[in-house]
């Protein structure tokens, strides 16, 4: 069980209180916002300032994605005394100053957008701040990490990336095929992120990322958000220790300015628990899908304790907690 707040050192508690704490990806069921959205309060209670909520992935159709976004936005609008829908970096700071939780949205994979790049600015205006190239399987833009063949970004994919840059939406290559992800990094003049993944050197899983891709991401000015899924962390034992191990390796490989938090925490429903079993095209057998444990938002103070105990400077821990993703937002959002 996660420790209660009074079990943490004052140094860790003070650091979480003073730093901007940024969760770059969590997953709600794509329906019934009134039932599920209240759970993001767990992030605020754990000391987070910013949370990105997924509105659709894989083969989720466009109409369902739009309905999910409408439901989440409506829920936030009714609670403007507690939450801020982020449209700018200034909103992030305003939310923090007012003691509110800043909320952004993301889309996992370009499949639902098909060839309609006009949807990119629409989603941006509605609060979507980053978008994955692909979700495990390929689409018209490029390949996914579970595709047998990856020929890189398509010509349309390059057009799609340019429109994202024009709008100010962050290009993200988690879940994406290696060649496609490298193409995104090579063509980009602004930071590219890997929102929620882990080093392949520690766990040889298709969802994890190689040193080469990690360094290419860093070369753009981008950030790798460390995922809290046990199946991607490559070691038995304590999930906090394994999460910190992923952070340490990533810092050694990419540098302190290029590592953040992307827990990929899933607020489960009966549907989401079954989905990994039902759709084996997207989540193939043999990779642990449907069996993973998740590092919970409430365990971040334990992560901070462990990083400080390993000799990380407070200023560097603050970068990991949120400063690095904030920098990317400042450079990309418009």
What's the helix and strand layout?
Blueprint: H1 10-18, E1 22-27, H2 33-36, H3 41-45, E2 50-57, H4 62-77, E3 83-85, H5 89-97, E4 101-108, H6 119-125, E5 128-132, H7 155-167, E6 170-172, H8 178-187, E7 194-197, H9 211-219, E8 224-226, H10 239-254, E9 259-261, E10 265-266, H11 270-278, H12 300-309, H13 314-332
Parallel strand pairs: 1-2, 1-10, 2-4, 3-4, 4-5, 5-6, 7-8, 8-9
What do these coordinates show?
By secondary structure, the protein is α/β, with parallel strands linked by helices. It has 13 helices and ten strands. It has helices spanning 10-18, 33-36, 41-45, 62-77, 89-97, 119-125, 155-167, 178-187, 211-219, 239-254, 270-278, 300-309, 314-332, and strands at residues 22-27, 50-57, 83-85, 101-108, 128-132, 170-172, 194-197, 224-226, 259-261, 265-266. The longest helix has 19 residues, at 314-332. It is globular, with a radius of gyration of 18 Å. The N and C termini lie far apart (41 Å).
Q: Beta fraction of the residues?
A: 5-15%
Number of strands: 10
Specify the biggest β-sheet: 7 strands, parallel
State the shape: globular
Number of helices: 13
Cα distance spanning the termini: 41 Å
Element pattern in H and E: HEHHEHEHEHEHEHEHEHEEHHH
Mean pLDDT, to the nearest integer, reads 94
Query: What's the alpha carbon Rg, rounded to whole Å?
Result: 18 Å
- Secondary-structure-based class equals alpha/beta
Low-confidence stretches: 1-6, 269-274
**Helical fraction:** 40-55%
